[in-house]
Amino acid sequence: MTSIEIQSAIGQHFARIHRAALVLTGNPWDADDLAQETFLVLARCADRFEGRSSLYTWLYGILLNLERRERRRNGMRREKLRVLWINDCDPKGCEPAADAAAETAEWKESLWAEVAKLPDGQRQALVLRFSEHLSYQDIAQVLECPLGTVKSRIFHGLAGLRSQLEGRKDEVCVPQHPSEDLVHAI
After folding, report:
1. In degrees to the nearest 10, what's the CA dihedral of 29, 74, 42, 142?
2. Contact 5/118 with Cβ under 8 angstroms?
3. Are 100 and 83 in contact (CB under 8 A)?
4. What is the pLDDT of residues 119-131, one digit of tens each?
5. What is the CATH number of domain 99-186?
6. How far apart are CA 52 and CA 32, in angstroms?
């Protein structure tokens, strides 16, 4: 891949990769880092792209691997929706951005906050399907697993969301059979 092709790929796919990173991490700071690191890998290792899948599918695979590595490096499953300075800062010592608290509160109340609580495989499959609108086949390529495993992870992820949301009083709900996935459920 030439530097011009890499620049074109960045312009074409950065917004989608960043959005997926935001859903995976739960905060814009980590999402920025993760998306930028994904494209750094592209710049350094563009010769590894063999064209067996589309470029954006390959980039999602890189994104998921980086996100997994980051969680492993921390040595524990950290709470993705926590913003450290809101919880841990001395009020006199640091001030978060004016919209940070509102953004964090909104995120915590969203459906994606519930998705973030699911096991990794289910969470990743749901993010790629419903946030990024990848086909089941593309998800299988990104996650490097069989198509049946993708279907199972999505099914169990939706079931897990349903059970998490049963006790909630607000309007967040998961449809019994999402119409775009009904064909795959058979």
Report:
1. -100
2. no
3. yes
4. 989 999 999 998 8
5. 1.10.10.10
6. 27
- The pLDDT value recorded for residue 15 is 92
- Of 157 and 107, the one with more pLDDT: 157
Average pLDDT over residues 81-97: 47
The backbone torsions φ and ψ at residue 23, rounded to the nearest 5 degrees and listed phi first, read -65, -40
SS3 77: coil
Closest CA to 142 of 123, 128, 160, 158: 128
> Which one, of 115, 114, 129, lies nearest residue 178 by Cα?
129
Domain boundaries along the sequence of the chain: 1-79, 99-186
Q: CB atoms < 10 A from the CB of 6, how many?
A: 15
Residue type, 29: W
Asked if residue 92 has pLDDT above 70, the reply is no
Q: Which of the 8 DSSP states describes residue 128? A: I
Of the options 1.10.10.10, 2.40.30.170, 3.40.50.2300, 1.10.1740.10, the CATH number for the domain spanning 1-79: 1.10.1740.10
